[in-house]
Structure formats: structure tokens, C-alpha cells
Structure prediction request, 338 residues.
Amino acid sequence: MNVTDTLITLAKQMPKTELHLHIEGTFEPEQMFAIAQRNKVELTYQTVEALKAAYQFNNLQDFLDLYYQGMSVLLHEVDFYDLTMAYLEKVNDENVVHVEIFFDPQGHTERGVPFDTQIKGIYRALQDAEKKWGMTTRLIMSFLRHLSEESAFETLAAAKPYLDWIDGIGLDSSELGHPPEKFLRVFQACKDLGLKVTAHAGEEGPPEYVWQAIEQIHVDRIDHGNRALEDEKLVETIRQKNLTLTVCPLSNLKLCVVNDMTHHPIKRMLALGLNATVNSDDPAYFGGYMNDNYSALIKGTGINKAELYQLAQNGITGSWMNKEQQQNHLKTLEDLFH
Ligand code: HPA
Ligand SMILES: [Zn+2]
Prediction:
């Protein structure tokens, strides 16, 4: 076997964590059509093939328009359960041992689907995965940044009875024009409740948005963070604070954040001492789950064995699983690599 194939095999075998995954972005067209039919909802696209053909994006907004359209067929608790379970089954087969899943409550409450319906379906699937496979899971409620801070506060109020099920808060959707500082007060309220905090920053938005996420929102993690590399002082700050970046290679390619996988900055991030991790973001839309993301990086950027090991380690140490579980997975990883 050549070096590339050996590394791809190793990437498949190693215990992996997924820290940046939107559950609504795992909606495979086949399942979307099946649930649409079950719920008697009309989709804009008539066939699975026509829908798949539309997955050509020039930027984040192009994708989001389809993403919100797709999730509109989710109406009942069982729909959220089925969606989540289908994803968990897939990644369990890929040796993913721990997942931290975002969901976008406002994408559903805005259409009249109650918060309770969504979270009950998602959480039941997470619990079943823990029972069935020993996978560990965390749930991250994300605010849509194109909506108001008031709407985020309403979402937090709806979540209050379920705080035991929610581990962290995220910030996603259209980044440009919606800086983190717009959500300063609501994130402070989340912190006061003891929730972890993360935010998408520096995917399309400027380094200034990453600064705001760190200095105003006081994030525990940064989702994407690609454009932080444009600012040396920011890189130094991220390193000093030991913040993890949840990087999404195939997403970056599909949304034209990078124009070619050979130009992906993940090797540079590692060389700069940043805690970069590999994640799939919205795998049904971007052409692949965890193993596909690792394969694409290995083929495109030529990451070596030491870098692959570092990425997997960062995924474990940057996760919100408990320390004992981290130690166990780090040991398994070490045994596999040495
Ligand atoms: O990649 C993303 N960026 C911002 N918002 C999102 N919502 C789902 N995926 C994304
Ligand atoms: Zn994302």
C-alpha cells in the first residue's frame, strides 16, 4: 500500500470525535423525500436527482437557502428521531466514538414546530446511541445569527425546561453582517446558566468577528476560524488561550472558503500550534462524513502520520467529554499509532 492509502486506512480505524455537526445538515435527499411523503409535504424539487443536482454553492448563503428548505419537512418528534438516528448509525460505522451535535431550534419554531418536539426526538436518539454502542454525545443549541437577539432570548426561554439535556450554545447561519457582538447579552445569560459556548466565526466573516467571539462572547471553542490566519496577533491569542478550532474541510471546499483542497490551511494551522480538528459540518450537502473529510485532507494536503495523529488527539482533548473518557480514547489512539 502507498503512503496515502495507509494513512486513509489509519484514519478510518482511529477513534474519532465529531465536534461540528448540524443535525439538519445530515438530511440525505432519500430520507428527506421519504419523510416529506410521510408528512404529505411538497418539496420544491421533484426528484432526489434534481435535488442533488442543486447542491452547487458559491457561498454560505447559497447553501443556507437549501438547508432551510430541506429541514421544512421535519414536523413530528419521530422525524427528528429518525434524522438523528440515521446520522448516528452512519458515524458509528466510521469509528466515531463521540459526537457534539448542533441543532437550530429557530429553523423549526419559525415554522410552527414546537421546541419540545424537536429536542425530544433528537435527545431520544442520542440516548439510544449511548445505550446501543457506548457512543458519548453532547447537544449544542444554536442561535440563528440572521435573526434578532430577542428571538435568541425567546429560544433560550423555551429551552429552560430542558437545560439538563443541553451542554452548550452555538451561533450559526449567515455570518456576514451579523457579528458575534449582536448576541452579547444572550450569550452572557447562557454563561450564567453554566452552559458552554461556541460560535461560528471566521468562516466568511473577517478576523474581527473571531476577536469578538473571544473577547466579547468568551467562547470555549471556535467553529471554523479559517480567517483568523489573516491576523498574527489573533493566531497568538487563540494559541495562548488554547482554543480548539472545529475545521470542516469538505464544507470549506463546497462553500468556496477554499478554492481547492490542496490550498486548505489545516497544515498551516497545526504548524502554527493551533488546535485544529476535523469535522463534517453538513455532510449530506457537502459530499461526505468524517472518513471522507479525512480522506480528502490526506489526498489534497498531504498531511503526514504525525499530523493525522495530532488532529485526532485535538478532537479528543477539544471535546466536552469527561477527562476519564478522554484518557481512554487517547490511549487507544496511541496504541494504534505506535
Ligand atoms: O457552515 C455553516 N455555517 C454557518 N451556518 C451553518 N448552518 C449550518 N451549517 C452552517
Ligand atoms: Zn457549521
About this structure: Residues 22, 25, 60, 67, 172-173, 200, 203, 251, 281-282 surround hypoxanthine (ligand 1) (CB under 6 Å). The first strand starts at residue 16 and ends at 22.
